């Protein structure tokens, strides 16, 4: 029996009229059912590969992936900017108006939010499922094309999983592109996840996840990268561009590494933290904060003001070092009006270590601000004495000479 | 003649009974023989691609790769944890008990250790051989399933080679997963190499190798990443987790770069060095050292005590900077009992430069210790005076304020 | 209609004699014409995938890619060193003398320089075109095999483009391997681009480009990585080896990030800048400068002397930090003779921040030199007072203790 399937040639035994073009979800579910029918013992379940050739497909039925080792694979991430398209008054002369390559329009008519859900009960955890090289397209936002909302989710891992991978994918115009609940050694690498409300969300506890070499750009309503309860997340080599409400948001996450990324944002709170976050390393990143430049979107923001901190830190023993932090906002756009913007705010916690950051600003800013509640912060080589503000005596400062 | 082969459809001319499922090694050797029979002049040897669809295959005969430009490719790394399986008393209710995807059980009956050996005499060196997206599984360890020993090797490059690549692969339960002797511009990227004794070993002299974006986790008997005589090795973007005896071991290796990795370990000597190692850069990594937490494995260690150094350095002019070093071992587990653990031990060498490391420890430690034999070490911003110990006067210290 | 094409089975309707082996360019143009004939409305243009199996192909006609979402894909980058081959007196006993895998000899007879040009007028920009896993080979240089010149270009993106990708490719013996004019969110990742005059050139304005995880090595006549007018270029995880005239050249480029790379070069100006370059971050890289060691090439250089700076910086607010800079050139090879070589030259600009670099040199050097025109440079922890030279009073220095 072959373990190689093609969505365009598969027919559902009792529903030969459905094709991948009319409902690729139903087709893939049928293929998975066939895999399960062929692989019936616990020592004969190697999985399969399902190929999606270039084409426009509609997904009306959610796919449930409940077998390990399944690879779903296309021939290209197929992104094109729907944001530009929908903000162009006349596209009648355009060459193309849809994303492409192995392109799935997420158009569930089954009452579900997800295009793909990965979920299984029992043991072991689902392992080594791979999504690669195709496009998940939410088609449109509501109530307006600039809202980043439509209730649609691209892929949701809903039960604990190990060694899974999402790579080479495109995600566009989904409210939530990729959600993984309970990830172990998960890889999100080499993807193009932009013009989505939230891009990568690690919910539940995760460990040892890598987010590497991606283009990521969320909406003002959502997260570019979100991690709750993460242990040892590695975020490196990514280009995260606007307009997510943050570029990386950590909630009760420990020992994560955020290094060697290029970050651009339109709002404060580029790195945002909540709860208690310990022993995270944020180094060798480039932060660039500018105002929103795109007229259709200039009315939006993430609700935070410039006192929130470009990096907003709560937690203990974190290290922020060797970053270039670039703030370039006209004085009359600063919020609250007339305030001195904060680049790094230590809003709470003990023994944070902030060193060797080069801050470049068009107006006077506080490079580091320490809340009165904080203790034992060390600040080395992050600015002159006048560029550091502390509301506590419990800190050590070595200003730049 | 086609250059695209499928192991499931190939038949050996004089042995039609053998299939990829009974001996994929013999099948691939026969395919390689066919490639050589088709490609007979020095200007007509483009190689071929051998595809391994998802399935469970047994390898009983070692594959010898002695042609350039061969790509051996499957549809998924197929890892599942055998360590959890073998430490579960009853797996009768499990969905699956084997790794999967393009899954090769390494079961040599030919007296050889390797599943794949890459080797050729004469000129030029073998070039551009690629292994990608399949699973090499050693099946079981002996004498116990927690020993990390079985004498099996996944892939061994045994002669000088250029521009080869191992990517997207899974390796599990092999004593030695991947060995490359004499590598030039080799890539080990995007692999899942865990639950193996040793994971990546660069023996002989190598140059310009990249180890990037991998999940790696060796056994207490072996190495996660080992390099001997390396020049310019780049290790970046990896998640290296326990329980290798070290996360990176350098022996007589120079000008290597270890940066932007997440490292977790159960033993001292996370970065270990022997011989003379010069001008290496270790920066922007997260080190996390905790005790072994998994009961079946708690009796094991790598034989080193907490005075060995979480980073053990011998050599000259190395730079260790901007790392977060996190040591969290209960006082009563420290070895020798009552000792003050060492985070960075400069055990020998001249002019090492250790700066801007943030050390987080649950008990008092020496952040840096200088052996009496060392000379001209510079230590900047790595702790207070009381956290640095030197047994020589030949050093410079700027403590943190 | 299938969207999956194979160059070896495609026949041109009015030219059945041409094959991929005789002119793969003409074949691919015919396939693209077929795609356009099949995909005729702006909502039915998902593109296609064109597969190039392993083989030696000749390209005599330039390919014009003027559709979005096209993936051109082979089965291996196929590099082998032509430089070694052409500098070996007798290769008659060699196993192979050509590159391989999916190997295209660039032999245009159509008067064009490029093997592939990507270009379209009108809206939207071309999106999500992918070149992956094949080899573009310029075959030979003229007038000598060591000249790095032959007028040939591998791939040139000639009009604005979005979200395109070049990955897994091999480029060899092309004067210019990969040129992208007007790139947005472009990826050059996991390629092998060596023995070419110039390797990666980002001309026109680009934004948010990633150059990650590549092996790169240009010729003394050209650039390994060149960016003009770039905004937010991310260069990380690369191994850039000799002998490019520079490893990264920035011209009027801002907010770029060069981090976690291994760089080796034979000439001064490893990082070179011209025009005005602002707020770039250069951190956690290893720089290694040695003399050319290969006898056939020892007569060449890039025309710069050792006072030019291993890093030559013009611009404002750039940060150079946490690099290991290794200079190992015999005293009698220094140019001008008897000069004290410069490692980092700030040749012009304001408020550059140079900190925490470890400089390792076999002879006395100036670690940092400030031109008289420069203002407000900060130099922290880069050497002793005697290792820093300033021709201006407008700077701040904290020497290493």
UniProtKB/TrEMBL annotation, chains A, B, C:
Coiled coil: none annotated. The lineage of its organism: Bacteria, Bacillati, Actinomycetota, Actinomycetes, Kitasatosporales. It comes from Streptomyces bullii. Pfam families: Beta_helix_2, NosD. It comes from the Bacteria. CDD domains: IFTase (cd21111). This is NosD domain-containing protein. Signal peptide: none annotated. Residues 144-287 form the Periplasmic copper-binding protein NosD beta helix domain. SUPFAM superfamilies: Pectin lyase-like.
